[in-house]
Amino acid sequence: MFGSLVRAFRQAVVNFRTELQRGEPAELTDPGLRALAREIAGVAARVVALEAEQRAVALEAEREAREADVCARRFEMARGIGDGETARVAAEFRNRHRRRRDLFVEKGELLEREVAERKRDLDEMRAGLGKAVQG
User: Fold this and answer.
1) Most buried of 57, 109, 112, 131 (most Cβ within 10 A)?
2) Tens of pLDDT along 54-89?
């Protein structure tokens, strides 16, 4: 699980550096257009980072769901043998993991909306830069 998060973060860093190294097209001699190109590169890099964060959050949600399932099984087993204290603790941890899972799912949905919004902005910025360069 942790290894997956590390891989996602490392890939985001690689993608971020790639975006920053793209540089500006040679035809951008106007300082305003160069600034816009830099801003586009920054937004593109942010999108890459947000997508990596989305993947990491999804992994966390899955992990919490698995932990909640484990605790639910422990609760049932403890209840089945009449161990009230273990059942109570298992239920408490099951509920904690479910709440965390729900938070990560909600965070993932918000990140998905943010990525979509930034991609729309990025498309508009790139179109505007293309028009400015051509005309």
Assistant:
1) 57
2) 999 999 999 999 999 999 999 999 999 999 999 999
